[in-house]
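Here is an idea for our session: we take a single protein and study its fold together. Once you have written the record down, we can walk along the chain together.
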Amino acid sequence: MEEIQKSLLRLEEEKVQGTTAGATKHLQDGFLKLMGLSNLSDVTSHIAKLQQKTALLPKLAESLSSRMVQQDPSSDKVVSESDWDVYLETLLVQDKKNEALEVLKNLQCTPMIAGNDNNNDNNILPQINDEDTINNHVGSMMPYTQRKKLERMAKLSLEIGMFDQAEGYYRELLDVFPDQWTYWLGLIDSCVKIEDGKINKEGWVKCQSYANEIIVKVEGSQMYALRGPYLMLLELASMKVSDTSGYSYSTGTKEELVTVLREEICKYGNKFGSIASCCFEDVRPYLNVVIQASGNVSDPDCYLELENTMHILTWAKDLWKNNSQAAKEDLNGEVSADEFRERRKKIRSYIFAVHVIYYIASNVESKTLYLLQMFVPDVSHMITEWKTSLSSLPGVPAKDGGQKEVLPGDEIILLTSQHLQYQATKSATTSPPTLIQGGLYSSAIKLSSSIMRLHGSTSKDIKVYASKALRNGLMLKAKEMVTFQRDKMRPSLQLLYSKGIVMDAAPLMNPSDMSSDDLVADVAKQRGGKPSPQVKLAQEKGFGGNEEDLIRAEQIAIDAEVHFNAPSVIHTTSQCVSVGDFVSSDNRDMSINYFQILHQNVHLSKKDVVVQSLRRGHIHGLMTRAIMAVGAANAPKKGKVPKPTDETTYMCQSLRHNLSSARKFSQEVGMNDIDISLWDACCQLCEVIISVIQGDSTADSDTLADREKAATSIIESTTQHLENARKTFSLYCPDSDSQRGARVCQLLPDHIIPMYVLLETTARIFALFGWGKRKRLTKDASKALANLTLSFSEFISDMLVCMSKYRSFGGDKSTELTKSSANSVFDTDMVQRVINEVVSSRDMTKDRVDPFLLQMKESLETYNEEIP
């Protein structure tokens, strides 16, 4: 128990109001012991000494690193790139940018293109004597390259305002790497200095001339046209449209400048739409400039009359029509390599054109469907185009069976799905639920656990490889790894969210679902296979309102100390005073959803993820502390209240602190009516537990009758909160069984199970004090608890009815949907198969939601059984 108490001590929220003087003194003593100080007055002087030492560190690092780069004239050893980077870093930390730039100017390095530079000073290549060099060389063997040297010189020159020099460096880089977009952006920063929305006229002209010069230079020497210089012309035209100075309008009106940008977009699309699959992503920001500059997007009637936007839509429509291969015949025979390349170009142009129209249409919400009907191919045409691509551009089948490579026409299917999902959304048809909202709790645990394992293994790997990097003299590589772990992985938002999901879904885990083929097994079961064995609440993990809760609560308190364990989300809440102060790293890569234009999946914001994770941390903290407090409680003797012990005092104090923090959290973030009612109900059950174990310390007297009266009053209030939640739930989306079913699946782990666990925990402390369920006719507390369980049982009954309706999708409605949805592309059988899959997926929730609800309902009904 001593180990558990030490673990719980770290779970305390010492920063909230109401922290006791003893706890504050404990923290102060711990801090002084850690710092090796005798009293708090020594802290200021100690900090001043540390600051002085810290100020000397960069100078010391510069002195030491300078020795690494000093070359002995008699030695043929070349200073490595890593050593130079360390030395330069010590200068930049001290803001010695001019000194760093001077070092780079005098630095000898390898040429940008080996063999093309006749300057002997730049042809310094490393001498590698096979294994002998590799085994005996410390640090990097590669010397500084001319390319990296120019990149750093250009960047430093920009930072210290040496724009002419930076321009020269970027020109030198672009002469060799004309397709590197970052160099073109650097050239713009050097020449076209933008201040207060105004651009430099001469610099703009120089950039345009240089881009045209590069185009002429590489046009005949490259097999494929380079996008960089052409994209530069687009960027320059866009800058003129956005310019607020008088220069841009000296050559024409804003409408004329938008027309120029529009023409550049069309030129770029005609040139690269057929050869670069990323062409749409290139022009996407410039399409947005045209849209914003064309008029008031919120006024669609005015918007549709504007020439430039309509011109792009018309151009894109002609582009996909001219490149469509759906109506062509004789595409199955043998073709030459040239014909094969031509077909691939056509399908890329087709995809690019549809992308452009989708993007423009999506920016006018009230007219999107109209624009789709006017300018894009219909769904049947796109499906036919995709089918044609399978025969005209066949892929190479994998030897072991099944297609693995991406085929040229696959993106047409993504675009088609975007169109259909958008139409379905406008028709009030729901999309498939997420894992939690679909009741797939075990799958949610698997996914979250894999994320947690990734973060845990990364932490271990970085310790190993950072140490190796340091031993080999690769200082900056070690720093990169440590910084990545400290700033990105440890405070990862995904890690935090996964911890909360695992804690929430643990009681609902189905062991049979945890195999790698769980989804396959689910489908097989629905099609006549063996049903999964029925499971009970908290059969494997989590709290289930039974006697095993205490053992698991003690283990959770210990496991919470390890950052990469799921229970550590409880510890996180004790370190966070306010949601706004919470520091986390959002590692989600939303760019992978670049194809989502018309229909975009809604992702939780960073704040929402933090709020949901902290909510889970608070509720599991309440359950853990409440269970342990009841486990430590003593029964009254001879009708007198039990004497408080250090253990019960500590446990109740811990629960009280967490309860105070949880209430402040709910007030800060705000919750909907259902959530706040259930949240308050859970909090009040914790209050009941404290009042029964400790009583009211402010009251004049403390008797069993007083404690029973206080507990009864709180439970009656809890019952009212539960009735409010039930009433609000009955009004939630009454016309959508799908949304109500998803809400049940979400409420079950979020609030229903915590409510059930705390209710059963309260029942155990009542039974310990002689107010068990069989005393409801003679004890007010037992009667109040029985009324609460009756209300809770009725709420669960409502949820079961809701789940029954959720699974009733089918029947006559299914037949009607089949008839109305069938057309030349989707025949009746195909639509019926889709409907069957939807019905099957919804029916999968029966084994994952209903058994737990039924089990809780059955247990709750025992509180109101007839007494023999």
